[in-house]
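chain below, 353 aa
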Amino acid sequence: MLIGAAAAGVSALAARRLIRTSPEADMTTSTSDDTDANAGGSGMRFRDFGGTGLKVSEVGFGSWAIGGQGYGAVDKSESLRVLARAEELGCNFVDTAAVYGESERVLGEFLEGRRSKWIVATKYSGQDAGLTATLERQLADLRTDVIDYYQLHWVPSGKDAGLFDELAEVRKAGKVRFIGVSLYTVEDIDFVLGRVDLDGFQVAFNLLQPDPFMARLGKLHEAGKAIIVRSALREGFLTGKFKRDATFPDPADQRHRWTREQIERTVEQVERFRFLEQEAGSMVQAAVRYPLSFPEVSTVIMGTKSLSQAKSNFGQVPGGRLSAASLGRIQALQVELGLGDRWPRWLRRFGIR
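prediction:
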């Protein structure tokens, strides 16, 4: 009962914020040659990308998987077909980085002749060449003159704080349109919300990792910044397809480094959320519809490397939300499992983080 009471306040807030949106035709108000990303009868819906004036598909294309690093080897021709299918299903937002293997070069080949249909986000990841030089190479690899949304892959501090000035300079030069950061902690969110020069941020947010997003939900609603959600499937585990004895033998797969204990614990946690399948139809749809149930979220990027994944991610997931009852049950379960960092200290005496 104590656990349920602790979760009640947050779950009530979540329930009030359940989003009911309608499909939008215009993906941006900033350019004149952008096309209707809802063409083809897709069920994709679109959201404001913070205060930028851009309209982004609520499910975006996470391109780490097509880079050949992080989730195993891929075939470039297959990746090009997957991107085309995502476009057909209404996706207009893609997130990448220079450190995602061949991702930017594959995207550059795909975007030729269709650049105006896509909002492109990429990142500076601390390369030795420096931000400006790295950006120039990324522009060449992506075969474009401008990056729509350029992010720092972390929140700089100390001697790296000058990167914010460099970000402002490349934006003033017209090489990027909007800027932000990819972040990891509550303190990172507080920092970003205090800076008017940053248009948004990217953060992990899923059933197993409610914080730092949920820890600052009220402030995020007030701030109105663009928010990209990553890791909605918790590195694939929230698909529900993995068992306790799962292995990842490919050294190019980031999960290759996971310990047996980490894999078993994650699978056990996922099993506790199986009740959502009845409402959503599958664990994939339930997992992604969790962050999509919050209007503060601009887009949820999903790693996609096959045509079957494209059909699910962009054809079946969009448009759905979880019920208020499910959100409340999720909150209680997250407390019980000790997921998140916002719970009071007294709860932790009962074995809860």
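The CA atoms of residues 194 and 312 lie 37 Å apart. The radius of gyration is 20 Å.
thats it, cya
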